[in-house]
Description:
The structure is a homodimer. Chain A is α/β, with parallel strands linked by helices. In chain A, about 45% of the residues lie in helices and about 15% in strands. The first copy, chain A, has 12 helices and 12 strands. Chain A has a 6-stranded parallel sheet, sandwiched between helices. The model of chain A is unreliable at about 335-340 (pLDDT under 50). At the A-B interface, helix 4, helix 5, strand 2 and helix 10 of A face helix 4, helix 5, strand 2 and helix 10 of B. Chain A binds a DNA duplex through helix 2 and helix 4.
Amino acid sequence: MARMPTVKDVAEHAGVSVGTVSRVLSGEAAVKPVLREKVNNAISALGYRPNVTARALRTSRTDVIGLVVPDITNPFFAQLAASIERAALECGHSLMLASSHNDSEAEQSHVSAFLDRAVRGIIVVASSDGSGLDLPASVPVISLDRRFGTFPLVSTNHAQAATLIADHLYGLGHRRIAYIAGPTDTEAGRMRKEAFVSRMDGFAKTGEAVELEIAYGRFDYESGERIARNLLSRPAQDRPTAIAAASDQQAIGALRAARDLKIDVPRKLSVTGFDDISLANLVVPRLTTIRQPADMLARRAVSLLLAEPPGTADETVDGSLIVRGSSGPCPQAKADITGHTN
Amino acid sequence: MARMPTVKDVAEHAGVSVGTVSRVLSGEAAVKPVLREKVNNAISALGYRPNVTARALRTSRTDVIGLVVPDITNPFFAQLAASIERAALECGHSLMLASSHNDSEAEQSHVSAFLDRAVRGIIVVASSDGSGLDLPASVPVISLDRRFGTFPLVSTNHAQAATLIADHLYGLGHRRIAYIAGPTDTEAGRMRKEAFVSRMDGFAKTGEAVELEIAYGRFDYESGERIARNLLSRPAQDRPTAIAAASDQQAIGALRAARDLKIDVPRKLSVTGFDDISLANLVVPRLTTIRQPADMLARRAVSLLLAEPPGTADETVDGSLIVRGSSGPCPQAKADITGHTN
DNA sequence: CGGCGGATCGAAAGCGATTCCGCCGGCGCC
DNA sequence: GGCGCCGGCGGAATCGCTTTCGATCCGCCG
């Protein structure tokens, strides 16, 4: 196979110097149209393609964005990764992906591997708080969805979104509600829970009291199923009439538990999720949830990263309530008419 | 921030030449233990980290593996990506991910972007046949799951796996079966279908005849739901008693259609999938399917890529049947006793 | 008409590593 | 004892590009 042509070859073929070739390549500097034309002809004649590596060495910059996610298998992160990849591509950048498998050590080694690789910037969807990172970041880093270290955070407005869910459930008449929270060591888990609770407290002060019960788990299916099973295996009058989960996966687990216990959703029990993963629209019944605008998050994160100078302020984008079949009016209303057996 | 130390700094600090430093770095060449020690001390004293870019320029080789998938949002591909990332990491390599969004043009531009970037090798899970690729591949390329161009293929043994499903369904007594096939322009779609059909034909010759009906769609949820809805909206005696789908997503779509039409799975209808995505174990009822050993596929693909010389022969790994709740004995058996109304 | 500033371009100096080439010293062998 | 060979090392070239540094040339002002 013939050696790949270099700037030198192009320069000779066009009868100019390598400097000039480089100048037309970058497009910035002033080059006379005649020469520019000749160079462009030479480039296409030789099929020249710039050597990315050499450029990177010289400028110590690449057009690669590093992304670290806790688990690419998680549909929400997959969605995020897809959106980031698209957003990066739109800016002429490529994506390098690393999955930390929820291991904070792996997470940090991935970050420093990216640093070694002179990436243009790093986006990390944290699985830890990132406190142990020692490397001085020579490139912009931003946290997405969950805070990493002290880097600026782009995330859904968890508080606003959780409030949406609270309003929805309260509006449907539910007064005995269980909240399945996410891990308290994640900002997302904490904020969603706190906003939900404080909204409900607000209702309790101004209107009818609501019984709120909180259970903590991880964000995954199993947690949701296990917790819901506990919640729902009590006698009907002690059961919550609505379960709000901190993630779709928990909610789907809860759906499965309800089904196993033969509790009709949404007629006996309402279930809500958070994320709007694609699966949410495929389970039976379809899940009422919060849509996290993944592509908007991605776009913001990428442009923060690429901005000159890189953005340094947190950003938050609003979620929206997606009402589907898993939530409905509180059955208790009927019970109250026929006589409450409590 | 202080300039990063280079080989030159290390050399000075250790009192040797840069050549020697490089030699101990590579570990291959012969260096006297005394000097080796001094160099290592200097390295850790200065906190030296080799510059990946410079190394790449000089050797025109990196430790990055490029992966192109049709859609990272698809759980099966996400699984595959996760496994590949892990396998790559085990060999000290990183992963660069690109999602082609089922666009063959994007696919090819991603491949050539990888080529530009001097990756160590490229794994592509094709969404097209890759015929339009013009770049001469300067690095090993291998196809995973679906054939890309003329590059060696690592895939599940589709034929063997489809046969497993056919045997399972036939063994349960089903004689009126519908097969939801994948796109005929994918090798996976074709092979699964053909093996299934030919197995059924075999049964027809030696034993009872089976009515086999084939419908073609894409691999996604919607295709499965749509096709199943058509199939199942006929009167009960004309309906298939089993639907075998070419992907889990199709099967899950079919499950949803059956539910919407109030057809009991598995008592009135058996449904089987293909892939064993994690969701398969979460739907109701849990899906009988074929497990594609994603991590084994990934491991094989990576080692083929990294082998010296790179592997050139196709490889195939067997799938295994996972029997869950969505398949059961044919209800027809009963019907036959009470008199077949056909 | 001389000088001056800006536009334009060529030449060369790196970026940080690998690797080839050649020198040096010690060893074995004739 | 001399010669050749080889292990071990230092120095320099090199990978392909960007960018600085002057040099040149032009128009224009005084």
